[in-house]
């Protein structure tokens, strides 16, 4: 009986100025998935968490990915999957991407590593399409590759894995709902060329900073004059969280994905801990329940744990 | 008598997708400047070329830079400068930047290296302001630093020197006039967010490619969906030159600065030579006089030759 257990990392998409192109895997939170190869063409999904996600394969993010793999590879096998999700759906921390990427990764291992990373991404994007209506790779790419990835294009797939700077990541997930579709609709379709130029100066600086492990340059580049000013109004206390984190020594940070989670980068664990406490206490004060995750940038992506 | 002779490289600004932020120094063409420190506060500029540029210091690009240095440093010295310009004014190859950067660089050496590179850029931008009305560092930064530079911000000055990929550069300067002000006016003030996202994916890819010496990635990233489609209509045979160059094996290329020069990058000298011949013959055929320069990316910027 072929069976594996994998650990699938949460991911932070956009990375402030890198709207729709950059993403980063983090060590926490993460999902656990057990995937078994069946000798009959059945797909069985069970969730051992209590988020009430659909388990019918065609309606489940992992299920649809496995159905597509089964279909395109004309498999006679099926898969039985048990998902224990710790990455909360709707958190902006790549919950659907984790299920989708985990399914593609797990199936690939069980089938004898017949897929390239980009092929796994290709299949996993069907899960994102089911979850949000958009076949995007912003979260899937770092989940599969680890570290920080650039999605230069998702059709055709052109993913550039960047360096993994040795940095701490603090993410706070306030228990409020921000729908990805709302977060997308609120954006203006037109932007000023002069703002775009400022943005691409920051993106170029961020990529150079990541590649050179220049933490100061990473910090100087984490500015977003286009998306953050619009989307941050959907997230309670965004400005306060950010200002206080910067005061405590964060390199920079912003909205994770389309929110409501907020992430901050820090060089030292001590700084990261203070930021985590500050985030928690800001939400406690206004009685919004929140979860805070302190970890590092995850260098490997999905890993087999047995 | 303190006197130096320097070689000042031409520069290619924008680098296709890097509008207003990237620039690159090239080995050819280049200006020669002789700068002498005077023990009286006079500024004397002479041009040994025949472009008919003004020699009155306050109206000369090198002159204004030296006047500003003299003023801000409260110098009792003056400078005598002889400029032999090979970089044609109005070519889009950083002619004014060369005079401005050369003046700042030369003065600095003669004054005992009291200025940082960014201070030289600060002074040299007064020359660009005189030439085009805009205090920009797109050409000055690579002229001073060499290689490829990112101007993350020009006020305050934040320049990131990037790698110098070992590539050949072919630039063709057709003898037509494209005014920088026209080239700027023709641009739309608003752009689509989705085009901006495509553009910053390419910029991120280009910077990663430059930093990793990944020539294929550099080539895949040299696309501009915003500025080139608009500005290229001002340059005769732009599409033909580009298409033919790509066919001959160019990695990519586009408008140099705001034109009319066009540049192409190539991995091999053989390919670069074919591109150079093709450019020349396309302009010969329609009886537009052109100059073609084949060289490499210049790694050092301005150099003292004695």
Automatic annotation (TrEMBL), chains A, B:
Quote the cellular component terms of the Gene Ontology held in the record.
cytoplasm
**Which residue numbers delimit the GHMP kinase N-terminal domain?**
65-147
Per the database record, which ranges form the GHMP kinase C-terminal domain? 207-283
Please give the biological process terms from Gene Ontology that the record holds: threonine biosynthetic process
- EC id: 2.7.1.39
Q: What is its main location?
A: cytoplasm
Q: In which pathway does it act?
A: Amino-acid biosynthesis; L-threonine biosynthesis; L-threonine from L-aspartate: step 4/5
Name of a matching Pfam family: GHMP_kinases_N
MF annotations from Gene Ontology: ATP binding; homoserine kinase activity
Q: Which catalytic reaction applies to this protein?
A: L-homoserine + ATP = O-phospho-L-homoserine + ADP + H(+)
What keywords are assigned to this protein?
Amino-acid biosynthesis, ATP-binding, Cytoplasm, Kinase, Nucleotide-binding, Threonine biosynthesis, Transferase
| Domain of life the protein comes from | Bacteria
- Which family, according to UniProt? Belongs to the GHMP kinase family. Homoserine kinase subfamily.
Summarizing the function annotation, the protein's role is:
Catalyzes the ATP-dependent phosphorylation of L-homoserine to L-homoserine phosphate.
PANTHER family from the entry? Answer: HOMOSERINE KINASE, HOMOSERINE/4-DIPHOSPHOCYTIDYL-2-C-METHYL-D-ERYTHRITOL KINASE
| Protein name per UniProt | Homoserine kinase
Recorded name of the encoding gene: thrB
């Amino acid at each position: 009986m072929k069976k594996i257990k994998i650990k699938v990392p949460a991911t932070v998409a956009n990375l402030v100025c890198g709207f729709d192109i950059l993403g980063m895997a983090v060590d926490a939170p993460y999902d656990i998935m057990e995937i078994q190869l069946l000798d009959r063409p059945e797909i069985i999904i069970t969730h051992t968490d209590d988020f009430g996600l659909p388990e019918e394969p065609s309606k489940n993010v992992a299920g649809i990915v496995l159905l597509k793999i089964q279909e395109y590879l004309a498999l006679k096998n099926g898969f039985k999957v048990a998902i224990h999700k710790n990455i909360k759906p709707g958190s902006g921390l790549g919950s659907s991407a984790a299920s989708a990427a985990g399914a593609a990764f797990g199936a690939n291992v069980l089938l004898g590593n017949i897929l390239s990373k980009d092929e796994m991404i290709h299949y996993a994007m069907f899960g994102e399409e089911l979850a949000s209506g958009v076949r995007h790779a912003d979260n899937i790419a770092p989940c599969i590759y680890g570290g920080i990835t650039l999605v230069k294009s998702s059709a055709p797939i052109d993913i550039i894995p960047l360096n993994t700077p040795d940095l701490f990541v603090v993410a706070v997930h306030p228990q409020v709902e921000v729908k990805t579709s709302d977060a997308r609709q609120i954006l203006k379709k037109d932007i000023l060329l002069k703002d775009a130029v400022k943005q691409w100066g920051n993106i170029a600086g961020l990529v150079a900073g990541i590649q050179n492990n220049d933490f100061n340059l990473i910090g100087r580049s984490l500015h977003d004059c286009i998306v953050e000013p619009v989307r941050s109004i959907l997230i309670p206390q965004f400005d306060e969280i950010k200002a206080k984190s910067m005061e405590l020594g964060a390199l920079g940070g912003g909205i994770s994905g389309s929110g409501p989670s907020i992430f901050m980068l820090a060089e030292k664990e001590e700084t990261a801990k203070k930021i985590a406490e500050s985030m928690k206490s800001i939400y406690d004060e206004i009685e919004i329940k929140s979860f805070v995750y302190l970890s590092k940038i995850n260098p490997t992506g999905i890993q087999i744990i047995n």
